[in-house]
Amino acid sequence: MGSLMFYITSILSGIISVYIILIFIRILLTWFPGVDLGRPYVFLCGICDPYLNWFHRFRIFKNSPVDFSPLLALAVLSLVQRILVNVGTLGGISIASVLIMLLGAVWSIISWVLIFFIGVLVLRMIAYLGNFNIYSPFWRFVDFIAQPVMYRISRIFFPNRIVNYLFRIIFSIAALVFLAAAVWGLVRLAGMLLAALPV
What we know:
Elements: H1 2-29, H2 38-56, H3 69-90, H4 95-129, H5 137-157, H6 165-195
């Protein structure tokens, strides 16, 4: 019975791995709109879009210019895959281990989003310090993403003050790094508490 369970969960885990790769390819191909990729692309969309569209209802940042819902879709698949691997290797799973895996999936989404925004802000700072042509399409896109983040952080910490632009960029980067460190610490603490549960 144990080897059959291992065999079934290994097959299901492998199928999920392939599906994760297909979704990742589908997400990357959205960066090239207007390019005719033929029948394989239509097939890929037919396989991946129903799943991805289900998560579009739960946009993580409703006002963000970037759609982060595919991250949530990938995190759910990753969580299911980890549960299958645990069931296959251990023969069962505890509530505490499911909660720890769920916590890890949530952290991976949050950390990816924070790293993305930190990277965009660092790019914006480089453009500002290097006096790059900020009117090119690339830098306008970077600005399009960076400005709302800097605006929200400035409104929280400096509600009634006008702050220097470079200071706003640096302070926003520092605030996001601090937030990432704080959330990471909370996730580690919650993970240790969950691991100590007898269930």
